[in-house]
Amino acid sequence: MAMVNREVGLESSHIVDAFIWWDSIRTFVDVGGSLEEVSIALANSFPRLHFTSQDLPVAVDQASISVSQDISNRVTFMIHDFFTEQPVMGADILQRLIPELKPGARIVIAEYIVPPPGSVSKYKERSMGLAMAELLNAKERDLDEWKILLKNADENFDFIGMEQPKDSKLYFIEARWNLSKLKSLSLLEAS
């Protein structure tokens, strides 16, 4: 996957520039961070942010070597398989991690999104989906499928929006863990 992260259109600069709210958060947990280009790029751009990069042992070993001294006190590494329960309190990820999500937590998903039929060439429409099927026995989703996935993970996830930065192949899907829905549910259960 590290090779894919270096492909034109997949550079970490796209996520650095995609959101205006980076300065409003303190901790960023990158689940499946690979060689950690994203956390390193964000750490270089936002000096108040602290990062925990989680991945399998081989990726953590390789990534920890690439962090420069000037940001090493803000970028830490943790061995973690994201198919198991999340060990970091307040980490912003989906279903298995819901018990640890803090109210208002932002979820950012960097993914390919299947374009609407006819909006791009047939090759572009199908190429990533075929690669996902062949390599991972998986599929790419369109925007509506991502919204459904968030709601199926939990009704308390609110879809905020989606953006594709200029020259990026990835879209950034933003969702939020909604405290008001949790409060409403608690009030209903109490009555």
From TrEMBL:
Range of residues in the leader sequence: none
GO terms assigned for molecular function: O-methyltransferase activity
SUPFAM superfamilies for the chain: S-adenosyl-L-methionine-dependent methyltransferases
Positions of transmembrane segments: none
Domain of life: Eukaryota
Residue ranges of every copy of the O-methyltransferase C-terminal domain listed in the record: 7-93
Name of protein: Similar to similar to cercosporin toxin biosynthesis protein
Provenance organism: Botryotinia fuckeliana (strain T4)
